[in-house]
Every structure is written in structure tokens, then in C-alpha cells.
Amino acid sequence: MKQMIRNCIATVWLGASLFLFGVAANAQQTGSDLRKGYDLTREVNLSGTVISYTEASSTPPLGAHVTIQTSSGALDVHLGNARLLTASHFSLASGDSVRIVGENVAYGNGTQFLARVIQKGNQVLNLRSLRGFPLVPGGKLGPRTQGGAL
Fold first, then answer.
1. What pLDDT is recorded for position 132?
2. What is the 3-state secondary structure (H, E, C) of 88-147?
3. Whole-number Å distance between alpha carbons of 148 and 80
4. Exposed/middle/buried for 3, CB within 10 Å: 0-12, 13-18, 19+?
5. What structural domains and CATH numbers belong to the chain?
6. pTM as predicted
7. Beta strand pairing status for 123-126 and 145-146?
8. Beta strands 110-120 and 73-80: pairing type?
9. Is 78 within 8 Å of 63 (Cβ atoms)?
10. Half-sphere exposure (CA, 13 Å, Cβ side) for 44?
11. Rounded CA separation 148/150 (Å)
12. What pLDDT, on a 0 to 100 scale, did the predictor assign at position 31?
């Protein structure tokens, strides 16, 4: 009887461990989709006007998003951590003219434009490392705000 209880407990523990391992692996896969495809040689410069800014998007990838109107149409741009913009006193409002350096990367079943650098007027802010990793306020590489053009 004791052996049967031990076997049941071991089976439940093993099943729960495998389930949790699968959930963790899936979560890491989703987050890495954005970073594994970033390549500086594919970066583009966009210029446009801010249509809307969302500090905390409820749709992935999570974080700050800005929708800009370009000559090619409206584009949703992932900016990364909104706290970096706040800490750098970088604000976005409808009607602001911006320049963005970044690229479209595969994400889920489609693509997402990831901004690496954003400029509004003379204010320039690095949002991602050269490898595409989002910067955080007070992090090793951020915030970096400087005057000048892109």
C-alpha cells in the first residue's frame, strides 16, 4: 500500500514538473522571437507623425507602442519599456513628428516593427541595444538621451 502511494506521488510530481517545464519553455520561446531575428543590416529609418501612444499595450509584445503615420501608411511600432521613456523625460503625443530607426522582425504569425532609436526634435533616445534587446532605465546601456540628429 505504501509503495503504491509513493508511486502515485512520484507520478503526480513528475507530471507537474513536465507541465511547468513546458510552460516555461513556451514563455521563453515567445519572448525570444523578437530578439533572435534582429539584424542591424536590415534597419530602416522611418519618419512620420504620431497618431497614438500607448504606455502599456495589452497586445504582445507588451510594453510601449506608438502608431505613426508614414508616407506608406500607419505603422505600429514597439518601443520597449515605457519606464525608459519616462526616466528620460521623453514624451509622445498625437501630432508629434518623429524619426525611428528599427526593423520589422518575425513575431508570432506576422511581423512587428521594433524601434532601436527614436528622435523627436533634438531629443534622441536609444531604446534597444545593437543586438535588439530592450534597454531599461538605469541599465548598463540606458538611458542614453542626447541632442542632435539621427
1. 85
2. CCCCCCCCCEEEEEEEEEEECCEEEEEEEEEEECCEEEECECCCCCECCCCCCCCCCEEC
3. 22
4. exposed
5. 40-146 (2.40.50.140)
6. 0.68
7. antiparallel
8. parallel
9. yes
10. 9
11. 7
12. 44
Written as one letter, the residue type at 146 is Q
Closest CA to 40 of 113, 108, 116, 107: 116
Whole-Å CA distances, 135 to 64, 117, 150 = 12, 11, 18
Q: Which residues of 118-141 are buried (b: 16+ CB within 10 A; e: fewer)?
A: bbbeeebbbbbbeebebbeeeeee
CA distance 115 to 126: 9
Extract the residue ranges of the chain whose pLDDT is less than 70: 1-2, 4-37, 139-150
Tell me the C-alpha distance between 67 and 88, whole Å.
20
Query: Can you tell me the distance from the alpha carbon of 88 to that of 16, in angstroms, rounded to the nearest whole number?
Result: 44
